[in-house]
Amino acid sequence: MKSCVGEENWVDSRTVYIGHKEPPAGTEAYIQQRFPDNRIVSSKYTFWNFIPKNMFEQFRRVANFYFLIIFLVQLIIDTPTSPVTSGLPLFFVITVTAIKQGYEDWLRHKADNSVNQCPVHVVQHGKVVRKQSRKLRVGDVVLVKEDETFPCDLILLSSSRDDGTCFVTTASLDGESSHKTYYAVQDTKAYNTEKEVDSIHATIECEQPQPDLYKFVGRISIYMDNEPVARPLGSENLLLRGATLKNTEYIYAVAIYTGMETKMALNYQSKSQKRSAVEKSMNAYLVVYLCILIGKAFINTVLKYVWQADPNRDEPWYNERTETERQRHIVIRAFTDFLAFMVLFNYIIPVSMYVTVEMQKFLGSYFIMWDDEMFDEELGERAVVNTSDLNEELGQVEYVFTDKTGTLTENNMEFIECCVDGHVYCRVTQCWLSTQEHEELFFRALCLCHTVQVKEEETVDGIKHGIHQGKSTSFYISSSPDEVALVEGMKRLGFTYLRLKDSHMEILNREDEIERFELLEVLTFDSVRRRMSVIVRANTGELYLFCKGADSSIFPRVISGKVEQVRAREGLRTLCVAYRPLSSEQYQQVCHLLSEAKLALQDRDKRLAEAYDLIETDLILLGATAVEDRLQEKAADTIESLHKAGMKVWVLTGDKMETAAATCYASKLFRRNTQILELTTKRTEEQSLHDVLFDLSRTVLRHDKSLKKCDFTDFGLIIDGATLSAVMRPGQEDSNSGNYKEIFLEICRNCSAVLCCRMAPLQKAQIVKLIKASKEHPITLAIGDGANDVSMILEAHVGIGIMGKEGRQAVRNSDYAIPKFKHLKKMLLVHGHYYYIRISELVQYFFYKNVCFIFPQFLYQFFCGFSQQPLYDTAYLTLYNISFTSLPILLYSLIEQHINMDILKKDPSLYRDIAKNSLLRWPIFIYWTILGVYDAIVMFFGAYFLFDNTTFTSNGQMFGNWTFGTLVFTVLVFTVTFKLALDTHYWTWINHFVIWGSLIFFVVFSLLWGGIIWPFLNYQRMYYVFMQMLSSGPAWLSIILLITAGLLPDVVKKVIWRALWPTTTERIQVGTHTHIIEDYGSAKTTAAVFVFWKNYCKTKDRWVLL
């Protein structure tokens, strides 16, 4: 605690007065500081800023802002169409979106309130009072009871345990569910009642809030007889918000960081509006169409004045101008005409597309929530959609960043086997080959060399834990899940650890005899030594040092034993066990070394490490154990499917490297043939970071260049948090260091899997941000189950929370939540695939049908003297996108299944067909636009040449311009609807009802609109127009011919493309249809067909993938 000596090394500090008591007069100045309350805010809006903030975000969309301008223009100047045609759809879009986003944020407010209003116990005037969590203040003394969560960041003052320690789980913070030990301030640990705690007179000086979970620097000054006694404070004294008190009846602690200043809150990323790749493509297309629109309006404006250069055309006798119009400047008239043309052609920008997209996303999200395959019976939970704006992004994921503990694994270490002198004993072993001295010693060593505690309790979290069946229920807890797994494994093999009582450890051996060992010293585990030891005295008086640790830390200290017999198995974590008998003289030397190190005030940790190093020598190897952090069901299968789908999976965890690597092997993230590249602190201590990075870079690039000459090598990278910090920090000392980030990214690109261990929450977010910002700009997904995963969940394009054992912070801040990791497979490969296919067709189809709709209007201006005369009636202009063509594409975008979902799950490679926004690329967009222009030309000029025949009707009557427009509009509605029908692969009765029903609605509406004289209209130009058109035989023939001519090129193009350059998806579609047709041929009756289909759906496994 060097930095506690003075404040010279501190950037800034705060002073906290315990119990809000002023320091004694003459000691130090009392400076009252203002701190935030304990309120947590994860919501985005407030009641007051919802409307302006939401409006600002919505009008950032190109289409919304454009239609606002058009609406204002229609209000200001005289335009060919009514302001209602633009204002009503815009108002509908804004309102629907605001309601949806407001509802989602209200749910976040509701979740925040449940946390902020949670009751906490505060000591005031010697009594315990209840407060709401949000009212907690810095300096309050808090009483926390067992299994309660800490409401803010606290300094431990005292606990119910005599030694002033307490046990805490920090699973929701760093992903580790093991029990950790924290220590009370030495001078206050004896204060165990409210009155005693209230009598404490002290101040705390500490650093200002910062997000590092593992760092804390401070000191406490306790006033005794008005003289302050200073004691250092470190991370071992700091209890973090979100952690849970375990195996300790109660504690008293003082609040030092509250609300959004707690370390948990500082590790949250600020919320930002996430936008999908599809939405970005839509905005880009809208800009293009806006340029086309401006070009059209400009061309028509210029041609209008060219046309009106002749005075007879400029001011004909039947349309003379007023004196005011004559005096208006030509520039103003030209600008007004330009705006009028903009309004006339503005329907090329499909504002209704945004309404349809919002409805599609909102309604489509229910398919995830209703999916029975994503329902977990154990938890009783279904998948949850918190943000429906990103549904299609699930089909575009390229990188998956996953937490380990509780996400890939069940947070449940399990003993698998042990090896003693070459003999392997599994967890189910019931008999013994022989009783050997080393075997007995090995099992006793594992029962003694640990920090496990035994807790008597009936149930914990609803689950019963027992050691002896039929007896009082007890269970083990420890700072390491490995230790619990090993002690439970030994119990199954005949040696049961009972308890630690009066410094004596009790063991029940195979003969049901209780053995007692006096615990003399514990040499605690640390990540540098990677081992721990205990010194015990047996009843016979013999002294033993038992040591266990990673093989790399034990083997160099072993002088005898069958080292070559100890093997590590893939996916299992191996710990070696060794011992050393001690004489009384040796024990005295050990005690002397340890006491000297423990009494040191300077460099205590360093001196203890040196003492441990001297003591843990000359060991005799007993054997090894293998434990497994059991994977979640189908976790390995899910990761394998994600790999086949072309996604790169990264594991980001706060856990140790050995444990995390073992999980990666078990989950098949790393395989046997994977060449592991290490970028860790251990390696950078041996070489400079610069050299390590360039060595790794040369390795992967050399392999990349020689791929064709040699077999494929699979690379996996392991990096730890400290090295990542060095990589992310720009090199300043060495000008030749180059850009480490770029080198690191290049290495990662050539690795099929990456493991990042010992990651702080913000580092997880930094990794995600680094990949997001790389030159490929890949779509990222982050998945986790704890509060330590919230930052990366918010940073990634798509964030998914797991409903695990580590609280609901991740679920509350995620875009989607699923019960188990295995459900990610269906969410991406099926739901994501479908969502992307559907919305891609929706976007392209909307632009296509609006080009078909408005391009004839553009052509019509060449035949009406550029007079801004509408080709279509106002009712048709308003209802085309709202009623006549909206429902079929909305339904298509909700239920279309181009391939059966079982095939999508069995063949993950189909996901590659839609990767990198492949269906919304510019060539496809241009094709749809050209197709729309072609259909518009066919409709307009086809009708024009047919109209050129003056005997178009049977009685020789000529048609007018409204009949011409109605004919074009009729062909238009039928063509775009049939186009969608041709693109539909999954037909149900709903499709038939909506597609044919929308056409029938159009016909019925046209008959009513033109068949009745409507009294509220100031014109009757459409009266009898539609009936007159349908009474003409040539009109019927032209409708059929023009629809056929419009659809034929697209059909021919698809047939040729599928025959010559079919995609994997199209091959499967052909194979599927072939099977259906073959089996259908044997079904002679309707009943037979029904029976066939029913059986067929049950035996989808026999579908052949071409």
UniProtKB/TrEMBL annotation:
Record-annotated active site: 403
GO-annotated biological processes: phospholipid translocation; positive regulation of myotube differentiation
Domain of life: Eukaryota
Binding-site list for Mg(2+): 403, 405, 785, 789
Membrane topology, as annotated: Multi-pass membrane protein
Pfam families tied to this protein: Cation_ATPase, E1-E2_ATPase, PhoLip_ATPase_C, PhoLip_ATPase_N
Transmembrane segments: 59-77, 284-307, 338-357, 875-895, 925-947, 959-981, 993-1017, 1023-1048
Catalytic activity field: a 1,2-diacyl-sn-glycero-3-phospho-L-serine(out) + ATP + H2O = a 1,2-diacyl-sn-glycero-3-phospho-L-serine(in) + ADP + phosphate + H(+); a 1,2-diacyl-sn-glycero-3-phosphoethanolamine(out) + ATP + H2O = a 1,2-diacyl-sn-glycero-3-phosphoethanolamine(in) + ADP + phosphate + H(+); ATP + H2O + phospholipidSide 1 = ADP + phosphate + phospholipidSide 2
Record-level Gene Ontology MF annotations: ATP binding; ATP hydrolysis activity; ATPase-coupled intramembrane lipid transporter activity; magnesium ion binding
Chain sites annotated for binding ATP: 403-405, 483, 525, 548, 573, 653-655, 758, 764, 788-789
Domain P-type ATPase C-terminal: start-end pairs: 811-1063
Cofactor: Mg(2+)
Name the record gives this protein: Phospholipid-transporting ATPase
Record organism: Sphaeramia orbicularis (orbiculate cardinalfish)
